[in-house]
Automatic annotation (TrEMBL):
This is Porin. Residues 1-26 form the signal peptide. Residues 26-47, 92-111 are annotated as: Disordered. Keywords: Signal. Coiled coil: none annotated. It comes from Bradyrhizobium cajani.
């Protein structure tokens, strides 16, 4: 009898030693799930000393409520794991004891009594093994923190933003008519006058330059970044938009047929990214602009790039970090079955046309230099080469209907804003038989584009968190040939006193922008603020107008003027903005527009 009692006492002692290995916080096993201690500046005293201490630190301002809540959750998770480890350890110890007793009884003579003894080192090892096993299972299965996402879901990060906007567009008197080449090139060709159609009763499509407009608009975007493995990530984003325009995701209320019709969503980002080390990134798909651009003189700030790019940087000295960006981006890919209804009266139709693929190749080099603890300077120079962007006059093309095609029609831009100089694409001879030819025209860009761009930013933080930031950017299209462009141009001529007489071609190939910003660099919290003022000057053929800012002057090149605006935080990740932009044309017909925008922004 004495031996049996001693055995039970030793067994109980072993189980108590295993249980005591759990943290003190694990003793709150009786606390109902979902009623854990909370922390705040006004929280009542708790039975848990750790929570009371954290509440005290919150009241003293040492910890924020968010930090305190994180600490309590961490302690709660560890206690939960410890409780599970204790239960598993007790169960395993009991099972091991039963198996050992059964095995011993099988080989011992009847009536043999024994005392179970487990060395301390074995008990310690058993506790550690069980705890590691429980922790591993907790992380894999996600039950260490009830309600926590499983491991695969934790590798997905969702984000998004919503913007509501009021926009007023105001046109002073005296504006001329601006031909809408984008409407022509994306629709039916325009019938120009020729000897077989001496009087064309129709005017070409044009932009509104005389009637003031007010619009209420919104933008919504939702994206996800996914961590894959060994430096690989993937990303997707959908966005609103009235069309597939690369430079606007705005949707005008009532602008999609009206009557509260639903709005379309577009695939705005889709990419795979490889980042084996912190300072090197390779991307393929549709992704954010990889080139460093402190302003929107050259690239619209939310423009997505299709193709592939690499970005690399390396700190070579204290505070001095050179960087490099390079990439290739298909702007347009010829349809596999692109052909002609008729190309020449002497050739059978239809006939297939050669590929007219358009590409953008770009490279940028620069550096970031911390001049002192309060001054940061970033400078970069980029070179871009647009191939197959300039239009070419077709071979002799017999056209009798708007549906006929010519062999250079694929060179017309399938998206454009306004400002670039255009030329006729179709070489239509005067033919009277068997049917008279008609001058149905498409239009292509009159210039090649190989711009050089210099960018700089000076960030002064002497009044941190208030920044004083100076941004500057300059562009020069090295491929522009004034004589060649003016010989084929159909727009951007200086106005004359006689509306029927064209003046000389006065387009250009340069541009610059300067901006001063004062305030918080990012608007994240309540009463964060910044304000900016700047001036922009962008000649007609300095840059392809399809990719520049869509707000200033209602989008495009051939614009100059000033802008002013500001932002103020209304809460965590919600802020309001206001901007005033006044733009005037540089070349061609007179054009002026003043724009005011009031925004309410939220991100998550």
């Amino acid at each position: 009898m004495w031996r049996e009692m001693k055995t039970r006492e030793l067994t109980a002692t072993a189980l108590m030693l295993i249980a005591c290995a759990a943290p003190a916080a694990a003793q709150d096993d009786g606390m109902p799930q979902g009623k854990r201690p909370t922390v705040s500046r006004d929280a009542p005293p708790s039975s848990n000393a750790t929570v009371n201490l954290i509440n005290l630190l919150v009241k003293q301002g040492t910890l924020t409520e968010e930090q305190a809540a994180t600490l309590v959750k961490q302690a709660d998770d560890e206690a939960y794991v410890a409780r599970q480890a204790t239960r598993d350890a007790a169960a395993k110890a009991e099972g091991a004891e039963k198996k050992a007793t059964t095995a011993a009884d099988a080989v011992s003579p009847p009536g043999t009594k024994r005392v179970t003894y487990v060395p301390e080192i074995v008990r310690k090892q058993l506790r550690e093994e069980i705890r590691a096993e429980v922790m591993d299972r907790a992380h894999k299965e996600g039950w260490a923190s009830p309600g926590k996402y499983p491991e695969w879901a934790q590798r997905i990060r969702f984000y998004g933003d919503i913007r509501a906007r009021y926009e007023g567009d105001y046109f002073p008197a005296g504006n001329g008519a601006l031909q809408n080449f984008n409407a022509i090139n994306t629709g039916s060709p325009f019938l120009e006058e020729n000897t077989n159609a001496p009087t064309n009763p129709y005017f070409p499509p044009s932009y509104n330059t005389t009637q003031d407009r007010s619009r209420f608009r919104f933008r919504a975007r939702l994206g996800a970044d996914v961590d894959l493995f060994d430096g690989f990530t993937a990303g997707l984003r959908i966005a609103t938009g009235e069309s597939s325009s690369p430079v606007s995701t705005n949707q005008t209320f009532g602008g999609n047929g009206g009557n509260f019709s639903k709005y379309a969503l577009w695939l705005d980002r889709a990419f795979i990214r490889y980042q084996p080390v912190q300072d090197f990134v390779g991307s393929v798909g549709r992704f954010d602009n990889p080139f460093w651009s402190p302003t929107d003189l050259v690239w619209y700030k939310d423009l997505g790039f299709d193709g592939f790019a690499i970005q690399a940087k390396q700190e070579v000295a204290d505070g001095f970090t050179p960087f490099f960006v390079g990439g290739a981006f298909p702007v347009f890919n010829t349809d596999l079955n692109a052909g002609l209804n008729t190309a020449d009266i002497n050739l059978p139709a239809p006939a297939k046309v050669p590929s007219r693929d358009k590409w953008l190749f770009g490279a940028q080099g620069g550096f970031g230099a911390r001049i002192d603890s309060d001054t940061m300077l970033t400078v970069a120079v980029a070179y871009y080469d647009f191939t197959n962007m300039r239009g070419k006059l077709s071979s002799s093309c017999y056209v009798v209907a708007a549906s006929d095609l010519c062999d250079t029609d694929l060179l017309r831009p399938l998206f454009a804003q306004k400002g670039n100089t255009y030329m006729q694409l179709r070489n239509i001879p005067v033919v009277l038989s068997p049917e008279p030819s008609l001058n149905y025209q498409y239009y292509g860009l009159a210039s090649d584009f190989r711009p050089v761009v210099a960018s700089a930013q000076l960030d002064l933080t002497q009044f941190n968190p208030i920044h004083v930031i100076l941004d500057a950017e300059y562009i020069w299209n090295t491929a522009f040939n004034r004589a060649a462009v003016s010989a084929v141009a159909v727009n951007n001529f200086a106005p004359t006193a006689d509306p029927n007489v064209q003046g000389p071609f006065n387009g250009g190939n340069q541009g610059w922008l300067a901006r001063l910003t004062v305030g918080n660099k990012e608007i994240k919290h309540l009463w964060d603020w910044n304000a900016h003022v700047g001036y922009k000057y962008l000649e007609s053929d300095a840059m392809v107008d399809a990719f520049v800012d869509s707000d200033f002057g209602l989008g495009g090149t051939n614009l100059k003027g000033y802008f002013i605006g500001g932002n103020v935080g209304l809460g965590e990740n919600i802020w309001s903005s206001v901007r005033w932009m006044s733009a005037n044309s540089i070349a061609g017909m007179p054009y002026r527009v003043d724009i005011v925008q009031f925004d309410l922004n939220a991100r998550f």
